[in-house]
Amino acid sequence: MPGVRNPVAHVFSLPSAIAGRFAGAIALLGLILLPAGAYSAATTPNQRDIPSHPHVYLMRGLLNIFSLGMDQLAMQIERHGIAASVYNHTYEDAVVNEIAQKYRAGDRGPFILVGHSLGADAVMAMAQQLNARGVPVALVVPFDGTASYAAPENVACVLNITQRLYAYITPGPGFHGKLSNVNVSSDTSIDHFTIDKSPRLQAVALNSVLQAAHLETCQPGISAPAVARPKTAPTPKIAAPKATPAPRVASPAKNAIPALRPGYESKAAAPDRAVSPAGRAKAIVSSLAL
Length: 290
What we know:
Elements: H1 7-13, H2 16-32, H3 36-43, E1 55-60, H4 69-79, E2 83-88, H5 92-104, E3 111-116, H6 118-132, E4 137-143, E5 149-151, E6 155-162, E7 169-171, E8 178-183, H7 199-213, H8 277-289
Parallel strand pairs: 1-2, 1-3, 3-4, 4-6, 5-7, 6-8
Helix pairs in contact: 4-7, 5-6
């Protein structure tokens, strides 16, 4: 059409230097206008490339006023460069969701759970929830929980510090980690409200947390000797007493002669004796004399 110029032909009719610059600008514009999905897929890093960081989650008990030892322990943990967060036990579901999201994003932790009182119950329940989601837990440290729980198979180590005989942790199905029940009931200076604030017990917990955070112990997925379960001796089988047969009493023969007292022998049983004629005569004389 007269007066109308073809833009493509015009580009290639320009000097080569100008044409090259113009073509590069068009290519850059094409990259900018790529579909958003294609661009994000091309730039999303591999999950394995996301750095993993140890994180300790500490759960308080009732009303946030009886478990301040969790705050003290969190401060000690953070001094060693390890992230630590403190929550009330009622936030257990939200914390589980946070950990699961981190794990799906490629963060392998290790994840460590610590709790006191109802918070101790919460960390055991959280470990079980994370097990259902396939998220490994390096270490769980309950301080004086209010009930007994079974350690799930996704947990590498459990350090249960308690002064209750009924609040022991037992190996659950598939558990192959390390389990320790530390009973401090013999220490009269420790009760339910002071157990989480004991400097001695905090030091024990801190040492375990640091070792797990640095992957020195309690590595998820690596089996460790489980605590020995008390073996119940089998109940001995007692043989039932055999019934003693009653003694057989022989029935008396029909032709048997009943036993008589001495002096009353049966005449029928005595054999007949032959009597001589002289004896008979003597017997007759004797009877006449009577």
